[in-house]
Write a structure and sequence with these properties.
binds guanosine-5',3'-tetraphosphate, Rossmann fold, single chain, alpha+beta, six-stranded antiparallel beta sheet, 14 helices, Alpha-Beta Plaits, seven-stranded mixed beta sheet
Length: 534
């Protein structure tokens, strides 16, 4: 530690980089907004627009992208809270759900999972949770909308365990619900925190708290509710999981906070506790072992590539997660995969709702760098000539498949170029059927909107009209056994064997019954839902 740059050590220590995961409508936008409100990045709630309200045709969507650079500006939000520098990574949902949503989780050091108290764990949360689990990052749960009628809190904890397989530790415990919601009991501080919605969540809420033993609470809650609280707290202490910070940091135990983002209730205690428990950027694995974030050598990896929506510029923005050292504007770095020097001239950073040119940045920060078409997802950039490579970004399972053709055979070259470009940006995955005469492209996407984007961009940027013929496949598995032998492999009628861009064998399925059948019939073959990019 002695020869480390104290400035870097200090900046790493105060950084927290996390993603908020949830199912649409659980309250991710509202919670994000409230965190910005507490961080002083916005003055009043209601300034961050919910993207879900933009129900529109794809061309409108493109217009919005162009006007606001929406997915760029909302990709990362940086703000300060007390002495912490916080980076929130956006995980787009609704119709914007795509592979980028998963890839963003590769850049986060922890995740906040927002669950609607009336719904419990929902499908999109389950998918995103799987990626967090695979990475072993800490996961914090915010059970939202406690001001409304919701499920029983014990039932919600059971749901976390049954649907996600994660044990939980409630950091606070709700008192009453819906119209009779009184507040929470803070288990660490052993105090009651009273709910108060008088300011409707517009401004920062003051916490009115007190000791559980104070007789006034029995009067305020009523004897039954007061007794119910005492019984539930006793049950939690005796039958619940014990608090275990190591397990939290390994993503095996999730601290649970009950609150209401809309009314601000529980948001600040959550933020404080989260900042205390969640780790600053830690060492990341490379081909040369773990790289200490405090190291003097700047390094980072690209996890997302964003196309420039202006068709006259093919330029793109590559999102770089800084993993070690200090970034300074204009620095020259080594692009490891291409073995080339690159100058990072106009890097951008995303402060609350604005895009600014960044002068310096540190581990945990995300910067947007100009990409004239040289970067690929998973590339490493580093300052020295060591040539370290960070662990690759996996390829996540597409859920929609289609055959895509060009209407005009004379445009085939442009068609292939466009497909290659979109595949490099990671918005589509390309599969081919081996050994069939004509070349036929099967495109897989995580979110169905990507097909519309594909059609729009091929027409606008490459002048190619395409036919997209939807296929009934919904699941994919990469065959990862080295000794895979097609001849001895038993298929089902509704399953197709294809190859990915690296000619790895891949199966696409119409239903999960077929997956189980194939696993049953081919016990020696290993199937994976996520593929590690070569
Ligand atoms: P999302 O980003 O996860 O999709 O959810 P978002 O924050 O947009 O919230 C979805 C809806 O739930 C919104 O209502 C929002 O006001 C509401 N909501 C969020 N947190 C709470 C909470 O703590 N309590 C209650 N009662 N409601 C909450 P909407 O009517 O769909 O939209 P809007 O017109 O309010 O924007």
């Amino acid at each position: 530690m002695s020869d480390m740059n104290p400035e870097i050590v200090q900046e790493v220590k105060r950084r927290r980089t996390f993603a908020i995961i949830s199912h649409p409508d659980a309250g991710k936008t509202t919670l994000t907004e409230k965190l910005l409100l507490y961080g002083g990045a916005i003055r009043e709630a209601g300034t961050v627009k919910s993207r879900k309200s933009q129900k529109h045709a794809v061309s409108d969507w493109m217009e919005i992208e162009k006007q606001r650079g929406i997915s760029v500006t909302s990709s990362v939000l940086q703000f300060n809270y007390e002495n912490h520098c916080i980076n929130i990574l956006d995980t787009p949902g609704h119709q914007d759900f795509s592979e980028d949503t998963y890839r963003t989780l590769m850049a986060a050091d922890s995740a906040v999972m927002v669950v609607d108290s009336s719904k419990g764990v929902e499908s999109q949360t389950r998918k995103l949770f799987k990626v967090c689990k695979m990475r072993g990052i800490p996961i914090f749960t915010f059970i939202n909308k406690m001001d409304r009628q919701g499920k029983d809190p014990f039932e919600l904890l059971e749901d976390l365990e049954n649907s996600l397989g994660i044990r939980s530790y409630p950091m606070n415990w709700p008192i009453g619900s819906d119209k009779n919601f009184k507040g929470v009991y803070n288990r660490a501080k052993q105090q009651i925190e009273m709910f108060n919605d008088s300011n409707h969540g517009q401004n920062i809420a003051k916490i009115d708290s007190g000791d559980l033993s104070d007789p006034k609470y029995k009067e305020m809650f009523g004897a039954d509710l007061h007794q119910k609280l005492l019984d539930e707290l006793e049950l939690l202490d005796h039958a619940g999981d014990p608090y275990d910070l190591d397990k939290i940091l390994q993503g095996e135990l999730t601290p649970v906070f009950f609150g209401s983002a809309l009314t601000n209730f529980g948001v600040e205690p959550f933020l404080r506790s989260f900042l205390e428990l969640t780790p600053p950027p830690i060492a990341r694995v490379s081909n040369e072992g773990e790289i200490d974030p405090n190291s003097d050598n700047f390094s980072g990896f690209i996890f997302k590539i964003q196309a420039n929506m202006n068709p006259t510029h093919r330029d793109r923005i590559a999102f770089l997660r800084i993993c070690s050292g200090k970034f300074t504007k204009g620095m020259q770095v080594n692009h490891v995969q291409e073995n080339k020097k690159v100058r990072l001239a106009q890097p951008q950073q995303f402060m609350a709702q604005d895009r600014v040119v960044v002068e310096t940045a540190y581990p945990g920060d995300i910067i947007g760098i100009h990409d004239p078409g040289i970067f690929r997802i998973g590339d490493t950039l580093c300052e020295d000539a060591s040539g370290i490579k960070y662990e690759g970004i996996p390829v996540f399972a597409p859920e929609h498949f289609a055959k895509v053709y060009t209407k005009n055979a004379l445009k085939r070259k442009q068609f292939i170029k466009g497909i290659e470009q979109l595949s490099e940006e990671g918005s589509i995955q390309v599969f081919r059927r081996p050994n069939i005469g004509v070349e036929e492209l099967i495109i897989g996407v995580v979110g169905v909107l990507q097909f519309e984007v594909l059609e729009y961009r091929l027409k606008n940027e490459y002048g190619v009209d395409v036919i997209i013929e939807s296929l009934p496949y919904r699941y994919v598995r990469w065959i990862t056994s080295d000794n895979f032998d097609k001849k001895n492999f038993s298929m089902t009628m509704d399953t197709m064997l294809v190859q990915d861009e690296y000619t790895n064998p891949v199966l696409i399925f119409q239903n999960d019954w077929s997956i189980r059948q194939i696993e049953e019939r081919n016990k020696n073959v290993k199937l994976e839902e996520i593929s590690l990019r070569k």
